[in-house]
Design goal:
The complex is a heterodimer of chains A (138) and B (609). Chain A is of the alpha/beta class and 138 residues long. Chain A is built from five helices and five strands; from the N terminus they run βαβαβαβαβα. In chain B, the strands form five sheets. A five-stranded parallel sheet of chain B has the order 2-1-3-4-5, with helices on both faces. A five-stranded antiparallel sheet of chain B has the order 7-6-10-9-8. Classes of the chains: A alpha/beta (138), B alpha+beta (609).
Chain lengths: 138, 609
């Protein structure tokens, strides 16, 4: 895990239980983790804290996950930060909306810990934040 | 109501012929004449000329006409007994009076000078026949009138709208229900264009926005060919299914919301169990490990059940988005086999021989089918067994066999294997490990693609599941797309846009790859919010859309104002993706696929021949 030590991962999810579990899983895997509980806070932390990867829930208070993603991808300073969208709906429509808002990868809840870590590592490994992971279900 | 069935004319009892103006002697004489002529069914009886000549009960009246006064009496008697045939008997000198009597309603006249049994019998038979005919006509007329009344009542009181459209597409009749549904009175509708394509035997749904506002209604419309005033016409029956649609929508929303609400807590439960299992939350005993593993498996089952419920709900509601493309089944089988390697353990997985043609299908949906069938096969196959795949071409279809060496399926179960959710309870009982929806979903998916799924099994020797999918064929695929869009287009005309998006030197974008998916969703966003899109081959996408007023040209313009650089920027991928050319054809280019294709090919410069 030394290669990912101190790598910052931001979780943006209003579900406290999910944020708690994700935080622990990622910390165990050696990441430095912070949590934002709504879209606005998420955007502020992306700007201020500059995480290496963002795990972004779709249904968020104040600012939806898609909106946060769109804003990040429009921002010259932030657009290189890969975004992993967490969706609770079945893959398709969400993926489509997500792809057009520019997210690099997707995970449908409930997901496996291994899946999550594989996607996060894949995003970190891809040059310039380009996607390495195949779409969900493919 | 058949008058012929009434015994009145052909009774076994002799019927009475009233001889008006004659005495008993004459009556007897006439009776003898008739008997001699073989007409024995009648009995002649004398009747007084005035008042006394009550025709009641008589089948026929023979009327002696011997002067103008008799003619007046005849007319009075005639009005009293309209349904009794009357034959005039007169001497030659009274022939003009007899002719007048015939004009006033007598069946015929006979002159005493020429009277014979045969002639009289013939006249009687003819007169009776004519009355019977008149009665039949009258009965038919009444019958017709009453059925007209009932058809009228049905048409005017039914809740279904009925519209008759002539061959020119003009409305020629509407019933009150149709007026209400269409929101316009008959006087405005009659003569107006119906405005929907007319194909015999077709049923489709349309959303109607009423001119006066209010809730838009969903109308189910069924078209049949008919005849109106002797000419070919169409009858459209309309049914308001708005309420049904609303309930369906509510149900879908409910299932979708419940599923979503279930997934979120399941995610944290699953995550917690994972953390405990891998020791992240401290060391655990072997027994704890065992129980947590069971818990983890059941969480997976619960998650699968939720996914299946959602999928099945969508499939049944026809809401599943199907993205057909060129797909190699062997690739999908390979993918599924790799994903199932852990579950397979020592069981052998036999891949199909190479060489089967590509199919036209939704990659992700078919992966779901193969994954499900493979999962089932492995579940029922012992450790030393094998699951083998075979692909073969069957005409326009590719058949895929998945054979296991398991215990087989009892005969009485075979027929129920693919039954829908309603019957799935049996499967819950008999196969407690499944969700009971897997095979039903497989069937829905395969049928959605125009294929079939079946199972053959021999107890103790294993089972073979077989599904078929249409062979990929660009023209046929497009044809299918074309038909779908045409059926949904308001006037049956469509727009076809072919997009050749591979930049020079870049090729080999696999169907279903992320690049293609990204490209297609971008395309969707920028030119057409439609699901009517197909990848015809790597790098060539067809969009078929209902012909909108803006027309295909606007679509083409929108596409081409996006430069290759824009696409590259938009896609944010390292690989080069660009729209090299886009051809759009309009409804004016022809309204059948062959014509559209020809126009599109011409505009694309023959790249796709």
């Amino acid at each position: 895990m030394t290669d990912t030590a101190k790598t910052r991962v931001l979780i943006v999810d209003d579900e406290a239980s999910i944020a708690k579990v994700l935080r622990k899983q990622l910390e165990v895997a050696g990441f430095e983790v912070d949590v934002a509980v709504d879209g606005e806070q998420g955007l502020a932390k992306i700007q201020g804290w500059r995480p290496a990867v963002v795990l972004l829930d779709v249904m968020l208070p104040k600012l939806s996950g898609y909106e946060v993603c769109t804003r990040v991808k429009r921002d010259e300073q932030l657009r290189r930060i890969p975004i992993l969208m967490l969706t609770a709906k079945s893959q398709r429509q969400d993926q489509e909306a997500g792809m057009t808002c520019g997210a690099e990868a997707f995970l449908t809840k409930p997901f496996q810990l291994e899946e999550l870590l594989a996607k996060v590592r894949g995003l970190l490994a891809a040059p310039g934040g380009a996607p390495a992971a195949a779409p969900e279900g493919a | 109501m058949d008058a012929r069935a009434e015994p009145r004319h052909e009774a076994a009892q002799p019927q009475t012929i009233l001889v008006v103006g004659g005495d008993d002697g004459e009556a007897r004489r006439l009776q003898e004449l008739l008997s001699a002529a073989g007409l024995t069914a009648y009995e002649c009886r004398a009747g007084g000329r005035n008042g006394g000549a009550e025709p009641n009960g008589a089948s026929l009246i023979l009327y002696e006409l011997s002067g103008p006064a008799d003619l007046e009496a005849f007319v009075r008697l005639r009005t009293k007994s309209l349904h009794t045939p009357m034959i005039i008997l007169a001497h030659r000198t009274e022939e003009p009076l007899a002719i007048e009597a015939v004009q006033k309603g007598a069946s015929e006249y006979l002159l005493h000078e020429q009277l014979s049994g045969a002639r009289l019998a013939h006249a009687i038979r003819e007169a009776v026949k004519r009355v019977r005919l008149d009665d039949d006509i009258e009965a038919l007329r009444r019958q017709l009138q009453s059925s007209e009344v009932s058809v009228y009542t049905i048409i005017h009181s039914t809740a279904d709208g009925i519209v008759l459209i002539n061959a020119q597409g003009e409305i020629v009749f509407v019933n009150p229900a149709a007026e209400q549904m269409l929101g316009q009175p008959a006087k405005e509708l009659l003569g107006a264009q119906f405005g929907a394509p007319l194909h015999d035997g077709e049923t489709r749904e349309r959303d109607l926005i009423r001119p006066e506002g209010g809730e838009p209604r969903t109308i189910e419309m069924r078209i049949v060919e008919t005849v109106w005033e002797g000419r070919p016409a169409f009858l459209a029956s309309l049914r308001d299914i708005s309420e049904r649609k609303r309930v369906e929508r509510l149900k879908d929303e409910f299932v979708s919301k419940v599923s979503h609400e279930l997934r979120t807590p399941l995610t944290s439960i699953k995550g917690t169990v994972s953390l405990m299992l891998n020791g992240s939350l401290g060391a655990i005993s072997e027994e704890q490990q065992d129980f947590l593993s069971t818990m983890s498996q059941d969480i997976d089952r619960l998650a699968e059940l939720i996914n299946n419920l959602l999928d099945f709900n969508k499939l049944k509601a026809g809401k599943m988005t199907v993205k057909r493309a060129q797909v190699q089944l062997a690739d999908l089988i390979e993918h599924s086999c790799r994903a199932s390697q852990a579950i397979a353990g020592r069981r052998k997985l036999v891949r199909p021989a190479a060489g089967a043609p590509a199919v036209y299908a939704d990659r992700n949906l078919i992966l779901q089918v193969i994954g499900n069938l493979l999962g089932n096969a492995l579940k029922f196959t012992p450790e030393e067994g094998a699951v083998s795949f075979a692909l073969r071409r069957e005409g326009d279809l590719v058949a895929c066999d998945i054979r296991d060496t398991g215990s087989g399926i009892p005969k009485d179960m075979l027929g129920r294997m693919f039954q829908k959710f309603e019957q799935a309870e049996h499967m819950f009982i008999e196969r407690p490990k499944g969700t009971g929806l897997g095979l039903a979903i497989c069937r829905e998916i395969i049928e959605l693609h125009g294929g079939t799924i079946s199972v053959a099994s021999e107890e103790g020797r294993g089972s073979t599941f077989t599904f078929t999918l249409p062979v990929y064929d660009p023209v046929r695929s497009l044809d299918r797309l074309f038909q779908d869009v045409r059926a949904a287009a308001p006037d049956g005309s469509v727009t076809l846009v072919l997009v050749d998006w591979t930049a020079a030197g870049v090729s080999g974008h696999a169907s279903g790859s992320q690049d293609v998916q990204r490209f297609e969703s971008a395309l969707r966003q920028s030119i057409a919010r439609t699901d009517h899109m197909a990848q015809l081959e790597p790098g060539l996408t067809a969009v078929v859309a209902p012909a909108d007023p803006a027309g295909a040209e606007a679509m083409r313009a929108r596409l081409q104002e996006r430069s290759a650089a824009w696409w590259r920027e938009y896609m944010k991928t390292s690989s080069v993706v660009g729209v090299r050319s886009a051809a759009a054809v309009c409804p004016e280019d022809g309204n059948d696929l062959a014509a559209l294709m020809q126009a599109a090919r011409r505009k694309l410069g023959g790249r796709w021949a």
